[in-house]
Every structure is written in C-alpha cells, then in structure tokens.
Amino acid sequence: MNFTKWQTYGKAALVGLFALSLSTTDVQAQKKGKWVTLFDGKSLNGWHSWQSDKVLPQWKIEDGAIVLAEKGGKDLVTDKEYGDFELELEWKISEKGNSGIIYHVIEDKKYCCPYSTGPEIQVLDDERHPDAKAGKVGNHKSGSLYDLLPPTDFAVVKPAGEWNKAKVIIKAGKGESWLNGKKVVDFPTQGPEWDKLVANSKFKTWEGFGSFQKGKIALQDHGDKVSYRNIRIKEL
C-alpha cells in the first residue's frame, strides 16, 4: 500500500473510531432517564443468584412473574450496579411470608449476603409474620426501611396473596419508599442523619452496611414463597 492510500485508509479508520465513540456515548446518555425493563416475564437474563454465575432452580418464572418457589435459591441479584435510580415493581407474598427489596448491594465474598451492605425495603405478610411486631414502632412492616424507619401508613399494604405495587427512589443522598401509590418513607442515604439511623439500629456494628452509593439490587430469599413482576428501573 502506498503512502497516499495509507493516509486515506488511516483517516477513514480514525473517523470510524470517533463515530463509534460518539455512538457509545449517545447510547449511554439515552439510557439514563429512560425506563429499562429488568424482567420481561419470560427469562431471568440480567439476574443471578448471590455469588453464583447462574440463577438457582428455586427461582422460577410462573405466569409472568419471578417466583421463589422454595428456600435455597439465595437472593436474586442484578448483574448491573445502580447508583441513583427509580425502581418500580409489584410483589406478592405468601401467608406468613417474608422477603425484601435490597439496594446498593456489594457482591464481595467478605460479605455473607446482600443485606450485609444493602438497606432493605421490607416485603412481609404484616398480619401473620411475627417480624411485623419486632423492631421499633413498625419498622419491620411492609414498605419500611427495614429496622431503620417505619412506613407512615400501616393500612396501605394489601394482604398476603394479593399484589402490591412498590416504588423505590434513590437520588442525591435521599430515598423514598412508595407502596400502592403512596409515599410511606422518606429517608437519607448518607451523611449525619443516615449515620444516626444506623447507630440506632441492629446494623450499628456491621462493617460496610449502607456505606455505598452504588450497587446491585437484590430480591431476598428469606425461605418463604414470594413473587415479583413488572420490574423496571430508570437511572437518574
């Protein structure tokens, strides 16, 4: 190849690389602020069981929902990490059942489980599970920021066997928990107010708990049957 041709092809290659770089940036920009489906009702792509390279068989798909059929599936964790986000989903708990939605999870072998690092929005049969009466003033009830802050309305949750719609918003150091169209908890995610909440909770001596502003999202295997569907997220 002569020098003139090399110049032509070299310039074309540089232009192509530049265009690819712009395209990648554009795609990333488009994803932020746009709803992305985390579960399409048909496959568990984008998820895995805690510290595993696959989804364990206890997690199944039934009637368009993710279902923990029996204990042993480990918490179901997103492949991707999220910082600021808005998450929407529906959950249905079995009688006497317990589960949770956990965010900012750090998947590291030094931690036993997602709740070692990630705060939890409680999923519970408030009528029958004993955990509803544990903790302080309802901070173990459905919609609560588990063991940290109770929901403002204990009556908004629907009973076991019925679908509840949850929303979790994390943005700029603050969080919100919504249940069935009503905001039930406002909470800090960092700073002195957060530190005070943790210091007055069961997590006060847990290294790393609530210390991260980005991490994975987990659906908890607490050993009880639970279903999740219509899961989507918007990065903020």
Automatic annotation (TrEMBL):
Domain spans labelled 3-keto-alpha-glucoside-1,2-lyase/3-keto-2-hydroxy-glucal hydratase: 34-234
Official protein name in the record: DUF1080 domain-containing protein
Cross-referenced InterPro entries: AL/BT2_dom
Pfam family, one: 3keto-disac_hyd
GO molecular function: hydrolase activity
Transmembrane segments: none
Keywords: Signal
Signal peptide: 1-29
Residue ranges that the Swiss-Prot or TrEMBL entry lists as coiled coil: none
